[in-house]
Amino acid sequence: MAVTQLVGLVAALVAAGALGEPVPSGLDLAWSLVGGAAGMLGITALYRGLAVGRMGVVAPSVGVIGAVIPVVVGFVFEGIPAAAAVAGIVTALVAVVLVTRAPGHDGDRPSGFAWAVLAGLAIGLFNVAVGQLSDAATFAPLVVMRVVQAILVVIVIVGWRQPWRLDAWAFPRVLVVGLLDMGGNVAFIAAAQTGALAIAAVLSSLYPVVTVVLAVAVLHERMTRRHVAGIALTVLAIVLIGLGTAA
After folding, report:
1. What residue segments make up the domains of the chain, in order of their start?
2. Dihedral (C-alpha) 192, 194, 195, 199: value to the nearest 10 degrees?
3. Three-class SS of residue 212?
4. CA nearest neighbour of 148 among 7, 4, 9
5. How many CB atoms lie within 10 A of CB 195?
6. pTM score of the predicted model
7. pLDDT per residue over 4-53, tens digit each?
8. Is residue 129 within 8 Å of 36, Cβ to Cβ?
């Protein structure tokens, strides 16, 4: 986490400087701080859940919860959403139940669902915070977020005396993760600034499909019929929420 956030910080600094973006202030600064803290909690819980749990459970659960949160916030502040969005939320709940209750084939390996819930809630809050940013800059808010995240990670490492040295073989992989994470954040902020937050959040939440396919292909995780049904309902729920918020 420390390395990925530092990689993202350097990349964001270079891009913001090259584009001459202003330093965030006022509400943009406040929401960047909130987004940084929520993003750090969300991505840490996601990585932990993927590491100790089953990707076929963690990824879809995080995707659904992260997509539902912005819709629920919109429901609270903007009124009842369209029928498709309500149907999507109900479908999402069914999908989570199916995915998390499906029997696994990994011995005593836990599902990781608790980490998925924490990650989904935090990523949902991150999505909401990003949606409040103005269109004055894209990379400058990410600089603030990365600084917050780097500070929080260092506090955790020092406070809880976590091991911090990376093996030589791991560093290039972590470097790639940091760049991919930054690219995803940049794309999401740009999407939220140019369109509707809920749609951006919903479409970005389709990532579990890729994660699950890679888990099967690379890690040879086995999917039961209930898992497959839950993942299919996850995609359907996200599509319904997207249709409902676009209406």
Report:
1. 2-246
2. -40
3. helix
4. 9
5. 12
6. 0.82
7. 888 989 999 999 999 999 999 999 999 999 999 999 999 999 989 988 98
8. no
Amino acid at 132: Q
| HEC readout, 26-47 | HHHHHHHHHHHHHHHHHHHHHH
3-state SS assignment for residue 162:
coil
Per-residue CA distances from 114 to 62, 110, 184, 226 (Å): 10, 10, 24, 19
Contacts 24+ apart (CB under 8 A), 27-33: 27/132, 27/134, 28/133, 28/134, 28/136, 28/137, 28/141, 29/144, 31/129, 31/130, 31/132, 31/133, 31/141, 32/129, 32/133, 32/141, 32/144, 32/145, 32/148, 33/144, 33/145, 33/148
Structure tokens at 203: 């479409």
Residue 59 pLDDT greater than 60, yes or no? yes
The label of the residue with tokens 């840490």 reads 44
Place of tokens 């086995």: 222
> Tell me: the pLDDT tens digits for 91-108?
877 877 777 665 555 556
Distance (Å, whole) CA 186 – CA 226: 35
Least Cα distance to 237 among 71, 113, 22, 53 occurs for 71
> To which residue do tokens 């309902």 refer?
233
Tokens of 164: 């911090």
In contact, 2 and 146? CB cutoff 8 Å: no
